[in-house]
Amino acid sequence: MENYRKARTVEQPCPSPFPDLPSNIPEVRVKDGSKVRNLMRFALSRMEEKAPSTDHPDTCEGSEVSVGSGENLCRQIVFTGVGQSVAKAITCVEIMKRRVRCLHQHTKLAYRTVQEVWEPLEPEAGLDSLTVSRNVPGVWVLLSRDPLDRNQPGYQAPGSFDAFWAQALKEEAATPRHEQKRKRGGTGAGRADGGGRGKGPRKHSGRPGESRKPLGHAGGGQE
């Protein structure tokens, strides 16, 4: 491919793995260069209540919540990420679940076809253009205030991440401190006792009991 250059990249449309969703549900398309701050500002403006009620702070299901202006909030939202943006999309989902409580989650994995068009550096050389198709993995995450089908693969109930982190913290508290340092890659035994390599004074390589001559004196026997 040293005689070619990439001319353009075309992403083929991928059908949503949630075909039964209404068309007015917002979709947050996470790109590789997108900023999480901007993505979450848009998503929270559609899902987060501006003035949460203190009477029912943990209500998961029930009446519609509304923004301060009286506009109804969205009940569902979709996050999508393809290729290198998958990790950033998952980060946005986790932030959303901590800001907006009691969200049901459906996660779907799919592939999107990406076509790369390569053109020759020297067209007069008689080389033809090349089209390379790649299947890039992607993730689609549906967050919903309303209950979802629990029998579907990829379903995650509200609050399940709290139980996961609580179990992880409990196991970490029960583990002795020296084992935690060992698991985290702490100081090894070779460096703790000074056995590692350093720039200390050189050892005299002469025979035992032989004194080393001071610097600056030639060996002539004269004082």
In the CATH scheme, the class of the domain at 4-52 and 60-155 would be Alpha Beta
Total strand segments: 6
Structural category? alpha+beta
Largest sheet properties: 6 strands, mixed
Shape-level CATH architecture of the domain at 4-52 and 60-155: 2-Layer Sandwich
Radius of gyration: 31 Å
Number of helices: 5
Pfam families: Alba (PF01918)
Family: Belongs to the histone-like Alba family.
Region (Disordered): 1-23, 171-223
Biased composition (Gly residues): 186-198
Structural summary, described in words:
With 223 residues, this protein is α+β, with helices and mostly antiparallel strands. The protein has a domain at 4-52 and 60-155: Alba-like domain (Translation Initiation Factor IF3). Strands 1, 2, 3, 4, 5 and 6 form a 6-stranded mixed β-sheet that branches. The N and C termini lie far apart (77 Å). Helix 1 (36-47) links the parallel strand 2 and strand 3. 23% of the residues lie in helices and 24% in strands. The chain has 5 helices and 6 strands. The model is unreliable at 51-59 and 61-70 (pLDDT under 50).
